[in-house]
Please model this.
Amino acid sequence: MTRTVGVFAAVLGLTMVLGGCKADRQQAVSGPVSADVTPSSAPAATASPTPFVVVSPTQAVAPSPTPVATATPSPVAAIADAVKRDPAIARDAAVEKVIISSIDPTWAYAGTSAPSAGGAQVVLHQTGGAWKVVSLGSSEVGCGDGVPAAVMAEFGLECPS
Model:
């Protein structure tokens, strides 16, 4: 009975060390867990008959073999990056708004603001997996640049007739 309690205490202690006591986070330990139970010669602080437990360091816990997913930027982040990389955009410009067309998701709109240059509107097109600036400015953005009329209307952009 004493050895069983000691092994339970060792497993409980190891569980707390490896994964904490948080109910929202669980970790699995693969392989057997062993514990050496050695009674303590020092008097216990309480009158508990629980022996002193030493956890054996011979068992290593290996990380999960599940591959870690590589982070890919979201489409919004990729669009913002393309806007910031464009040499015609002010260096201090901040991308404040991004809209991806629901009509054709290879088209996007970005609104920027820069202390040095004011606001600008940007239309981008995704080709070959990369977003590229097609048109930018403060007026007549997208006009005559091959942006489909339905996409222009969706972005709230108009061209003079």
In short: Residues 1-40, 42-48, 51-56 have pLDDT under 50 and may be disordered.
